[in-house]
Design a protein that fits this description.
- By secondary structure, the protein is α+β, with helices and mostly antiparallel strands.
- The chain folds into 2 domains: 105 residues, Immunoglobulins (Immunoglobulin-like, Sandwich), CATH 2.60.40; 82 residues, Immunoglobulin-like.
- Helix content is 17%, strand content 40%.
Length: 257
């Protein structure tokens, strides 16, 4: 479309308008998304062409015209809206999408806004800390590339079994115990099916009574060693200070002739 004339709404173009319903969309990889624009035109002047454009980030390629692709991409009108539908979202679908409509005189109409930013995110499990000692606090978090909607319901799984009492983004284990060790994953409801993350294993280091007693004995032994060394140093300094006057006196005494 190089060399096309763009009209943003000046002059006799006041009846032509393009607006986006959402300027930023966060969607799950594998799901479907509708990117929608509302456009208007004079009743006696029908648009000759309508296109969605995919604008990649710098260094990722040129602008791409979104065309219908069987099973994945579809462009259609619906009650004054022109909708770009993308199914089975992939990571490389993340981009800026903009809509342009061509007037009867060859000019192109677009919105004053840049377009709609789409972020296709995956699901990941994050541990903090990565390895936890028994009795310490562990936080397991649902991690995404962009914030999901506020009414998202989170489902946590441990070793493939649902944890029904946990429906928040953060799963707090305080205190963590050996029963919390295992493979964690989480999922969100996506239409009629769930989208799940990969499993990630949490390691909980066990502290037995014998280990705790040994650790306590080790600390006590180290403390006694420090006390012993301090006493030895004090005795040495005391001896050195008591001997120094005698040495000085012997050095200042001349032999009797």
């Amino acid at each position: 479309m190089d060399g096309t004339r763009i009209d943003n709404g000046t002059g006799d173009n006041y009846c032509w308008s393009v607006n986006y319903e959402n300027r930023r969309i966060c969607a799950l990889q594998g799901s479907s998304v509708n990117i929608s624009t509302i456009y208007s035109h004079p009743h006696n002047q029908q648009p000759t062409s309508k296109y969605w454009y995919k604008i990649r980030r710098r260094g990722e390629g040129e602008t791409e015209v979104m065309m219908n692709a069987a099973g994945r991409v579809k462009c259609y009108d619906n009650m004054g809206r022109h909708i770009l539908e993308i199914k089975h979202l992939q990571k490389n679908d993340s981009a800026l999408y903009t809509f342009k409509v061509q007037r009867f005189d060859g000019k192109w109409k677009q919105s004053d806004f840049a377009g709609v930013t789409l972020v296709a995110t995956g699901l990941r499990v994050k541990f903090s800390p990565a390895v936890v000692m028994e009795g310490e606090c562990e936080t397991v978090t649902c991690s995404t590339s962009c914030p999901l909607s506020g009414n998202t319901t989170y489902m946590w799984y441990l070793n493939g079994r649902l944890l029904p009492q946990s429906q928040n983004k953060h799963l707090v284990l305080d205190p963590a115990g050996t029963q919390h060790a295992g493979r964690y994953s989480w999922a969100v409801r996506n239409g009629k099916k769930d989208t799940s993350s990969r499993e990630k294993t949490l390691i909980v280091l066990s502290v037995t009574k014998e280990q705790a007693s040994s650790a306590g004995a080790g600390v006590a032994a180290a403390f006694l060693v420090l006390i012993f060394l301090s006493v030895v140093c004090w005795i040495r300094k005391k001896r050195a200070s008591s001997q120094s006057p005698e040495i000085e006196a012997s050095e200042n005494t001349e032999p009797f002739q």
